[in-house]
Amino acid sequence: MANVAVFNMEGKEVGSLELNDAVFGVTINEHLVHMAVVQQLANNRQGTQKAKTRSEVSGGGRKPWRQKGTGHARQGSIRAPQWTGGGVVFAPTPRDYSFKLNKKEKRAALKSALTSRVNDNKFIVVDELKMEEIKTKKFQEVLNNLKVNKALVVLNDNDQNVVMSARNIPAVKTALTNTINVYDILKYDTVVVTKAAVATIEEVYA
Predict the structure, then answer these.
(1) What is the pLDDT of residues 164-177, one digit of tens each?
(2) How many CB atoms neighbour CB 138 within 10 A?
(3) What does the pLDDT look like over 47-58, one tens digit per residue?
(4) Which residues on adjacent β-strands are paired with residue 198?
(5) Cα(7)–Cα(191) distance, rounded to whole angstroms?
(6) Given the DSSP bridges, would you call strands 3-7 and 13-18 parallel, antiparallel or unpaired?
(7) Cα→Cα distances 133→115, 128, 138, 159, Å
(8) Which residue in 149, 139, 148, 151 sits closest to 185, CA to CA?
(9) Mean pLDDT of 183-206
(10) Mean pLDDT value across residues 51-71
């Protein structure tokens, strides 16, 4: 089992924690990780893009000039794609980009992402994150103490003081244990987790 140091909010090491290999020590499956990221990005797409084809634009009901004898190239409609104001040839239409992954695949991908962060020493455990008031400056000090810049902060409880304090820091995102996902784990350089959150993640995914 992997051992990681546990820090306090001052950045001092206050102990160590043994991580469950069933969650934080699995064989990394890069293909599933890739599929999980693609799925999340695809499911976030609105798919509302639309352009009109030549059958949908207005006008062009008659032939603009006779077939022969004008010196022009033959034309059948002023709303053909080559005309200004004409329809788009292969116009995009609203569609649903989402697709599904099996539950086992999702869990395996998440475990792989967490394991990769542990292997890269980008997984920091803090004994607790508590704020007496909503103060962005104080939360930034905690990150500086932990020597963290771009981080995903995983909480066990929806502590509004912590969430609101972190909200205005551009390179930081907070998440609960039931909302973590592969994309966010890989997007942020470091994952900062409370001890309570680690216990919950191990309980759910082990």
Answers:
(1) 999 999 999 999 99
(2) 14
(3) 999 999 999 999
(4) none
(5) 13
(6) antiparallel
(7) 34, 15, 9, 11
(8) 151
(9) 92
(10) 93
